Amino acid sequence: MNKLFGKTIVVAGATGGIGEGVTKLLLQHGAKVVALSRNEEKLEQLRAYLSGVDTGNLITLKENLDQDQAGSREVSDRLKEQFGHFDGAIVTIGNWGAANRSLIDVSDELWEQAVQDNLTSHFRTLRTLVPLLKKDGALIHLSGLSADTPYPGAGIIGLTNAAKKSLVLTMAAEQGSIGPRIYELMIGPIRTRERVTRGIARSNWYDPEDLGVFMSELIQGDTEASQKPLHYMVQRGG
Ligand SMILES: NC(=O)c1ccc[n+]([C@@H]2O[C@H](COP(=O)([O-])OP(=O)(O)OC[C@H]3O[C@@H](n4cnc5c(N)ncnc54)[C@H](OP(=O)(O)O)[C@@H]3O)[C@@H](O)[C@H]2O)c1
């Protein structure tokens, strides 16, 4: 259970439905986890949710990685001073907001907001976190399957997913053998705690903790999968 003992991993989006489960799994594997959020109240809820986990070390930090270049540098300097270089980084941010409507009904305002929340913020987060990784470290970014397959009614999310896939794979190629390993993990619907509570989670969907197990293997870097930048976790048994 202590596969990640001695490793420090930063999670952007740790308060989210996926982020909280991934954070839990990383702690269960013995990691020191730096859980980031823009919102102190959500961090407090995260601490309460994870209070029963007695392995690993949880550090919660109010920090916004969605910043312009100067702001990114300030955050980066702050994190480096406090934690040094990270062994791993998980990026599980995003905001659907009101984006689920047919493309023909997307206003300019909604377009700008959706691209900001589901693409620009991801670019800015990667720009901040990649230089903070150890050379043998790893960053894992999540995107949804609608990158590859049309989801009528959620087109704006699909097109940002496709752009994020390109962003992360390009970043992986640019880092190549000189920098940290960069992974894009394409996922289907996930059994988040909120969906389970509402009774709308299906049994063949992955739990957030399942994603955490795979991410933990990628960070350790000693499996065949860790040699490839692109991965899919669509549904159990499929
Ligand atoms: N859940 C699924 O079934 C599923 C399936 C496919 C893809 N995905 C993708 O996976 C990602 C995470 O999903 P989720 O269900 O965990 O979402 P979620 O519950 O809404 O959590 C996302 C987290 O991202 C952070 N965030 C949102 N906008 C941000 C911004 N501009 N800058 C920095 N942080 C921001 C928020 O944290 P704070 O407000 O605390 O800062 C929030 O807690 C999303 O990109 C989603 O589209 C999810």
Automatic annotation (TrEMBL):
<keyword id="KW-0560">Oxidoreductase</keyword>
<protein>
    <submittedName>
        <fullName>NAD(P)-dependent dehydrogenase (Short-subunit alcohol dehydrogenase family)</fullName>
    </submittedName>
</protein>
<comment type="similarity">
    <text>Belongs to the short-chain dehydrogenases/reductases (SDR) family.</text>
</comment>
<dbReference type="InterPro" id="IPR036291">
    <property type="entry name" value="NAD(P)-bd_dom_sf"/>
</dbReference>
<dbReference type="Pfam" id="PF13561">
    <property type="entry name" value="adh_short_C2"/>
</dbReference>
<dbReference type="InterPro" id="IPR002347">
    <property type="entry name" value="SDR_fam"/>
</dbReference>
